[in-house]
Specification:
This protein has 506 residues and is an alpha/beta fold. The protein folds into 2 domains: 287 residues, Aldehyde Dehydrogenase, Chain A, domain 1; 188 residues, Aldehyde Dehydrogenase, Chain A, domain 2 (3-Layer(aba) Sandwich), CATH 3.40.309.10. It is 40% helix and 19% strand. Strand 1 and strand 2 form a beta hairpin. Helix 5 packs antiparallel against helix 8. The chain is globular and about 70 Å long. The protein starts with a helix and ends with a strand. Bound molecules: succinic acid (SIN). The site of succinic acid has 8 residues, from loops.
Length: 506
């Protein structure tokens, strides 16, 4: 029996407990929020929410469609009029109250994230902190939507710019961070003076509804944030209605590149502003002079966060050929020591994948790569004894760009180790992808670090660190990883238009 199997506990045994905790949950809302009212879908349909660890049904939400989208957009249009007219200081205070409530509900929010998303509670708590930090940050930034006074081009004339809210915003968020990806979009939109209609991921609507309930409690006006829930089949209808509605002036989306491209095409009809945070294929480069202990820590932090289901996680490990065996020897025991299990189990460090299909896809990529020459040093198998959605944390050596596991975003707990012989080859391999979200570089040479950072075709580079996600910095990609930035000062700009004013007759 493999180490991962021995370490694992049967996640299904937690199913009854998960359902009990969901039923008793103080923030459980099982209706959609449209225009400040908790509603059922006009069509009456409901969607089951499943705990991915045990596959137990834990709640249900309305299966909304175009009718709820239209009502929510109408309410948002109404709400945005009053909201944009408020003083920035007043918007800031309302956001601050929302932040305070998020902080006060840290534990119940983390529990909801675990129940519907599967990640271990410790990771879910970190997500609550991360998600709340965007609300705190944009409560502060709400007062800094500065325009400019531009040196004039003519006597008697003055030139200036104003920053104005873009208008009604549609936000479509993913299941891998059901809390932080909502606040990373909603908080800057509200800070800028916009209203938001949110479609959370079909698998994880409960956290979004809880966030909205706390926003109402914080005194945010009804209609300013609506949450329209649906299932996979309804997602096209809801997403399409948001894209087609000319009252919606901006779409912000986090999810797969394939869906992002479809939304982008659909938004052409109404020429919406777009922010797209799409798939990644991050290289993690370990140069020959790297501190390998540090690099191994970076790999573990980046690759296995949320069981590898993050768009920024290290997807390909590129290590100098002379250091590969040393790095593999450091990593293998750490990967074997990870404990897959139900997110409520305090001993678990790795949750399930989001679906059986996701686990099967990862298994297929590994199996085909092993058949073509890769060698598993840890893992390399499904974990049916833990649950049908679990895959063992896996380290593969002998990977090459030609293997299926190196052919794009894996979104699972698999670390493939490839080698390179010189810096140029490392950078060429790193950039040989249509994605361009993040890259990680480990080296003790300042010169090499700068050279790599500048040569990498990505939106974000971490030097000698396995993490880069923070509210203070602009998160986003280049190439097919998307458009726009979230977080930092730049995240507010995504929700502001620039209006140029020429003042004459002076
Ligand atoms: C994502 O995976 O989409 C976001 C990850 C992060 O913010 O760190």
């Amino acid at each position: 029996m493999s180490a991962a199997r021995e370490a694992a506990g049967a996640a299904g045994a937690w199913g009854a407990e998960a359902a009990r905790r969901a039923r008793a949950h103080p923030l459980l809302r099982e209706r959609a929020l449209v225009g400040g009212a908790w509603v059922e879908a006009a069509g009456g349909g409901r969607v089951e929410v499943v705990d991915p660890g045990s596959e137990e049904v834990i709640a249900s939400v309305p299966r909304c469609g175009a009718a709820e989208v239209s009502a929510a957009v109408g309410a948002a249009e109404e709400a945005t009029r009053g909201w944009r007219a408020r003083l920035p200081r007043e918007r800031a205070r309302a956001l601050r109250r929302w932040f305070d409530l998020l902080a006060a509900h840290r534990e119940p929010l983390a529990e909801l994230v675990t129940l519907e998303g599967g990640k271990p509670l410790a990771e879910a708590r970190a997500e609550v902190d991360y998600g709340a930090s965007f609300v705190e940050w944009y409560a502060e930034e709400a007062r800094r939507a500065y325009g400019e006074v531009i040196p004039t081009y003519g006597h008697g004339r003055r030139v200036l710019t104003l920053r104005e809210p873009v208008g009604v915003v549609a936000a479509i968020t993913p299941w891998n961070f059901p809390l932080a990806m909502v606040t990373r979009k909603v908080a800057p939109a509200l800070a800028a003076g916009c209203a938001v209609v949110l479609k959370p991921a079909e698998a994880t609507p409960l956290t979004a509804l809880a966030l909205a309930a706390l926003a109402l409690e914080a005194g945010l006006p009804p209609g300013l944030l609506s949450v329209v829930t649906t299932d996979r089949a309804g997602a096209d209808e809801v997403g399409g209605a948001l894209c087609d509605d000319e009252r919606v002036r901006k779409l912000t989306f986090t999810g797969s590149t394939a869906v992002g491209k479809r939304l982008m095409a659909r938004c052409a009809g109404t020429v919406k502003r777009l922010s797209l945070e799409l798939g990644g294929d991050a290289p993690l480069i370990v140069f020959e002079d790297a501190d390998l202990e540090l690099a191994a820590r970076g790999v573990m932090a980046s690759k296995f966060r949320n069981s590898g289901q993050t768009c920024v996680c290290a997807n390909r490990l590129l290590v100098h050929a002379d250091r590969r065996d040393e790095l593999a020897a450091l990593l293998a025991p750490q990967v074997r020591a990870l404990r897959p299990g139900h997110g409520l189990d305090p001993a678990a460090t790795q949750g399930p994948l989001i679906s059986r299909a996701a686990a099967a896809r990862v298994g297929d990529l590994v199996a085909r790569s092993v058949a073509l020459g890769a060698t598993p040093l840890a893992g390399g198998e499904a974990l049916p004894g833990v649950g049908p959605r679990f895959y063992a944390p896996t380290l593969l050596t002998g990977a090459t760009p030609a293997l299926p596991i190196c052919g794009g975003e894996v979104f699972g707990p698999v670390a493939p180790l490839m080698t390179f012989r010189d810096d140029d080859e490392a950078l060429r391999l790193a950039n040989a992808t249509r994605a361009g979200l993040a890259a990680y570089v480990f080296t003790t040479s300042e010169r090499r670090a700068w050279r790599a950072a500048e040569a990498l075709e990505v939106g974000m580079v971490a030097l000698n660190d396995g993490g880069l996600s923070t509210e203070v910095a602009p998160f986003g990609g280049v190439k097919e990883s998307g458009l726009g930035r979230e977080g930092g000062r730049q995240g507010l700009e995504e929700f502001l238009e620039v209006k140029y004013m020429m003042v004459g007759g002076l």
